[in-house]
Amino acid sequence: MRLARVVGLLLLMLSVGGSPALAQPRSPTLSVAAPDAAGVGAVVTATNLFAEAEMRDLVRAAFPVLIRYRVELWRTGGLFDNLEGRNEWELIVQYDPSAQRYGVIRRLGSKLEDAGSFVTLATAQTVLERPVRTLLAPDRAGSRYYYSFTLEMEALSLSDMDQLSRWLRGVRNENAASAVGSGLRTLMLRMLGGEKRRYTAKSASFVAEK
């Protein structure tokens, strides 16, 4: 039954691929605010993460989606701007049909950590969309800076899905096999073209406090 639902999703995605609704999808909204006098680092927020129907349908079909965040601090001046620092983190969202819950998993390098389990995608999204304050702070008083914020969303690669499956088996101590077989996963990734959604935002420039 689970495989049939995934195949049905694939057919639906193909049948509506050229529809006007998907030609101009709504997109996530990113914001990045430079620190105020009392703050340290920028505050970044990404909302409306699953605005695009394709991403929502993938998650609801138990296909894991990787969300990658990157915040950079740039100093202006000279011929080129200078990169002063960078913060990166990753979150994985996956629906577990057996538990009927959406799991959020934090990935730090090769390590995975449980970041919570939620009844609905909307509830999981409220956690993903909480504002985050970075620790990137300018260190040259009087210089002009700005922050850039990049968000990338994509279906997990086959190797990433295998890593996730092994981790789930270890954490839950059960046969937490992937919802789709290897051959079907490969087909889905090819149909999606390995698509990666990429969104960017930039703060207003500011002068570092003396």
Report on this model:
The structure is a single chain. The chain has 210 residues and is α+β, with helices and mostly antiparallel strands. Strands 3, 4, 5, 6, 8, 9 and 10 form a seven-stranded antiparallel beta sheet that branches. The protein has six helices and ten strands. The termini are far apart.
Task: List the uncertain runs.
Answer: 12-25, 173-180
Shape: elongated
Structural class: alpha+beta
> Beta-sheet strand percentage?
35-45%
Helix content: 25-40%
Order of helices and strands: HHEEHEEEEHEEHHEE
What number is the mean pLDDT? Answer: 76
The end-to-end span amounts to 63 Å
Kindly report the oligomeric state of this protein. Answer: single chain
Kindly list the characteristics that best describe this protein.
210 residues; 6 helices; alpha+beta; 3-stranded antiparallel β-sheet; 7-stranded antiparallel β-sheet; elongated
Task: Record the SSE blueprint.
Blueprint: H1 2-15, H2 20-23, E1 29-33, E2 43-47, H3 53-60, E3 65-75, E4 82-96, E5 101-108, E6 111-118, H4 121-128, E7 132-133, E8 144-155, H5 158-172, H6 182-191, E9 196-202, E10 206-207
Antiparallel strand pairs: 1-2, 2-7, 3-4, 3-8, 4-5, 5-6, 8-9, 8-10
